[in-house]
Structures are given as structure tokens and as C-alpha cells.
Amino acid sequence: MAESTRLVDLVQADIDTFLDDREPLLASIGTDLTPFIDYSRDLLRGGKRFRALFCYWGWQAVAELASDFDAMPERTVPKDLGAVVLAASALEVFHAAALVHDDIMDNSDTRRGLPSAHKRFESLHDEESWTGSARGFGQSSALLLGDLLLGWSDELFDAGLKSLSLEAARHAARLEFNQMRTEVTLGQYLDILEEQSWRNYPEPELLTRAHRVIVYKSAKYSIEAPLAIGATLGGGTTEQVTALRDFGLPLGIAYQLRDDLLGVFGDPETTGKPSGDDLREGKRTVLIALARAKLPTNATHVIDELLGDADLTAQQVAMLQASIRDSGAVEQVERIIDHNVKLAVAAITNAPLSREATEKLVQLADTVIRRSA
Fold first, then answer.
1. Which pick of 160, 212, 255, 365 has the fewest CB atoms within 10 Å?
2. What b/e string do you get for 289-320 counting C-beta neighbours within 10 Å, with b at 16 or more?
3. Domain covering 5-369 assigned CATH 1.10.600.10 in the classification
4. What does R_g of the chain's alpha carbons equal in angstroms?
């Protein structure tokens, strides 16, 4: 298991402390702002912490520490560890912001087994019997919560940069963070664009366009960017950062492809989302593009007619799942996942990175693609 329990605990402690520090400001404005803190705490409690882990191992890959700090005595604290943990925490807060916005755009009712932020605000409106649209209030309020979390992620990241010992690394890490933020925002737009505009493009282009969404909405910010941020925090060379990028991008693609499979076939008890949620949301993923290319015309018409219907019944979801399985697209996606993982591992096998970090990254790659949630 590549997870660092101690790192995860430190990240959670930094997030909790940050929210504790911000709570008095919200309370001084009014008690009716309590949901912003409460919903943030719920969203930021737990999770897989993949982005934090990749940030840490990107740093350790170039910092050449003697060993994982989990094995170090408590009194032995690696130089710049605090700065890296703050940066890793910022990535988790950024991720939370992206989830809030994503759930609004996808009309997702749940997140990690709980109501999504906009549904919680909507319920608050109903419980208090306020005037106006509960749905509109919920979406607008959650949009502001996402914006607030984005700002807070920047504050946390800046705090980490200020405590970093390498001045040149501060500038390089900030550039990486800024680029990540731009790319994932544009990737999110590409995602909703494909849901609405796919009929305007020739069939052969749909797979390429679905792949582009994977790269910019998920692959880069989930794995490649955290690795690059961690490496730049450690003063990594161009060769080292490039090797980590060459590892992170294909692994990020594999990560999202696994997510796409879970979005169609995942167990609700494990994923915290209804079965076939991506089908109701109308996601034009690589999985769907591959299935459409392999199915007969009548089956393709059924997919096109039903995909994106928020009111799909359990029977209709099961029918779509069966069609996708019968097309052979699931097996093809699994092969693509395996191919990308091999590309990722090959990129760091002989790279100028610390041996222990390389081993941990390979282990973490296995964890990422074999997950069930």
C-alpha cells in the first residue's frame, strides 16, 4: 500500500486548522453563514487523497530523502515538509471546489454518499420555507461555495510557498498551480461542450474529442499537475519534472478511464453515487465513443436517445449497461488502461528520481487503477 498514513493525517490537520481559522470570520458576519463551514468540513473530511499523495511523492522523488518520513522518528522532520504538506492540502481544497462545481453542472444529487452541496442548500431552502426557487437557491449558493473553496485553496498554497526554503522553487510551483487551474477549468467546459455539441462532429472525431476531455478535465490535474508541483517545490530539474509528467499523464488517463467505467457500472454502496450516474448525466466518454463505434445502428440510436435522460429507470440503465458490455467497449477500455499504466511505469523506470519514490509511485499507480470508488 503506497499510502502514507502520516501524510494523510498531516493534510487533514492542515485543512481542519485552516477551516478553524476561517470560521470566526464567517461567524462575525452572521450565523446564517454556518453552512459554508459545515459543508466544507464534510466535503474535505476523508477521501482518497490521491492529489496530496502524488504531490508528496513528486517532491520526494527529487528531494532524495533517505526514506519515507513515515519511518522516521517524530523528531526528525524533513526540510520543507511543512511547505509540501500545505501545498498538498491546497490541492485537496482545490479538488473539493472542482467537485462542487462539477456536481452543479452535472445535476448530481450525491457526492461520497452524501447529498451534493447544491442539494444541501436546496434542502435548507425547503426546510426554512423561504421564498423563491429552492433549486435556484441551491445552485447559486453551491456556486459561491465552490468559488470560496477555490480562493481558500490559493490561500493555503501561498502559505506553503511562503515557508519554502528555495526561492526559485516558489515561482516554479506557482506557475504549475496556475496552469493546472486554467487547464481543469477549460477541461470542464470541454466536458459540458461534448454533451451538447457531439452531433455536430463526424463520427471518427468523437473518440479524439472524448480523449481530449479526459486529458484536460481530469488526467492533468489529478496526477500530472500534483507530481509536477511537488517536484518543483523540491527544486527538481527539467529532466526530473519531465519524467514525472511522462508518468503522470498516461496514469491520469488510466485513472479517468477507470472512473468512467465506475460511472456506468460502479456499485452505489462503494462509489456513493447511483448506478449508471454517468448515463443519466449524458457523459460522452471514451467508453461511450468506443461502444457507439462497435454497435449496430439500431443499438446506437437507442444509446443516443437515452443517454442524458435524468429520469432513466433502473431497467433502462440496465439495458444501456448491457449494450455497452456487448459492444466489447469495456474490454477495450481495460486494454487502454493497461497500456497507459505500462507507459507510465516505463517513464520513471530509469529516470533520475529517488529509488524509493519510484517504487512508491509504481505501487500508487496500481492502487489508482484498481480502485472500486
1. 212
2. bbbbeebeeebbeebeebbbeeebeeebbebb
3. yes
4. 21
